[in-house]
Amino acid sequence: MERHILVVLPHPDDEAFGLSGTLAKYIQNGYRVTYACLTLGEMGRNMGIPPFANRVTLPAIRRKELEESCQAIGIDDLRLLGFHDKTIEFEDHRLLDGRIDDLIQEIRPSLIFTFYPGYSVHPDHDACGAAVIRTVGRLPADERPAVHCLAFAKNLEEDIGQPDVIQDVREFLQPKMASIRAHRSQFQAAELLGDHEYTSEEIRERFGTERFWTYPFGS
Amino acid sequence: MRERTLDKGGTSMRLIDQADVQQRLDRLKDQDLYIHLEMTTGAYAAFIDSTKHPAATFITNAVIRYSHGSVSDQAPYRVGLKMVQGWVYSEGLTHYEEQETERLILAGHDGQGKLIVSLQLGREPF
């Protein structure tokens, strides 16, 4: 199978905190990454003080940020699927799953990254993960790529256990921090990065590990 | 002009000038308009603080027409649009896009700059 990874996430910036280091690592190891981003995050709320964006200009700003983040990580194949922020859970399953299936047939990935449905807090995250799981689940078992899921709901480990894939990305903090910083419209909020400068030791501690759950498909 | 403001990474969202917004409301009355109306606590409200109740609602590119529209006198501003058979109401508006000539872009931002409410009117879809 080709060394090709498919990433399916709903919003620009969903890749930054939990996945960008892992993707940079895979790319350095010779993998190619295709990132399908379902929306432009056009309903995002962070607009700065004073506001530097409004509902009309935000999609173009976030698209540029996403392209900059991909460049930082080394992703050269970004697909913008054109769905609308906050609506993924209401989309026609045939349309949504069909777009994802088209990508899988085209790319034939050996590995897919998405959100763990039910454990990813934002309704778009859960709906995106569910669409990927449905689509991959329809493939014959011996053709299914592995699906590594991001998850961050509270108390999720009581249900789905400990993450089984732990990626040490301490060697890839430069692209990871560049990915996070690329999304400057979203990540200036105090609750995400804090108000103080991190020392490099703090960054290594906080951002040096990325955790995933392999989705358990039945047969 | 929009390109130029985008290149600077921003827009010209300014604190609402009540008289200016009122003039713009008057210019847009008695015609079919696309509306974007939204209010949100943010999808992570309950995740960040479990005592919070997450709520959000938006309607985008519905067509309305109003015969009388006005903005209240003091910040944070309220806007009411009287339609033939009903009303559009929005409270908590703080900013407007000063450079817009055709559309009216209003938003309400909290102390962290996060958008809480928005009301947009234009002759073309958003």
From TrEMBL, chain A:
Coiled coil: none annotated. InterPro entries: BshB2, GlcNAc_PI_deacetylase-related, LmbE-like_dom_sf. GO terms for molecular function: hydrolase activity, acting on carbon-nitrogen (but not peptide) bonds, in linear amides. It comes from the Bacteria. Pfam families: PIG-L. NCBIfam families: thiol_BshB2. This is Bacillithiol biosynthesis deacetylase BshB2.
